[in-house]
Amino acid sequence: MLTEGLSHTSTLTVTLDKTALAAGSGDMEVLATPMMMALMENAAMLAVAEELPEGCTTVGGHIESSHVKPSKVGAEVSATATLTKVEGKKLTFHVVAKMNDNIIGEGTHLRFVVNKVKFLASL
Predict the structure, then answer these.
(1) What is the DSSP track for the chain?
(2) Residue 24 and residue 34: Cα distance in Å, rounded?
(3) CB 3.0-4.6 Å disulfide test: which of 18, 32, 44, 96 passes with 81?
(4) Is residue 54's pLDDT more than 90?
């Protein structure tokens, strides 16, 4: 059952393929903002995955986040997503990314519960 407070933390190690230079979002070898946000989305997806009806998943609808500190290659970054609101199939999460217990980004993420088969058939 989807209830407020469900949470998950995902982690990654910054590697060259996750840098702004590799992603094309910047020209330096630091964690790319799109990679940090993808980690936040992953945490949100996993926070509710085991509570969804059979055959369902969630898809991202909106994400808004700061990215206030760089992370060098080799650094470990974590992102925690906490479900803060359930409105039918619309789920709102608070997301926060950290490196060494320091916040490097924080925001909100919106996901929607969808039936996998119906979703793919609608494409």
Answers:
(1) ---TT-EEEEEEE--GGGBHHHHTS-SSSBB-HHHHHHHHHHHHHHHHGGGSPTTEEEEEEEEEE---S--BTT-EEEEEEEEEEEETTEEEEEEEEEETTEEEEEEEEEEEEEEHHHHHHT-
(2) 10
(3) 44
(4) yes
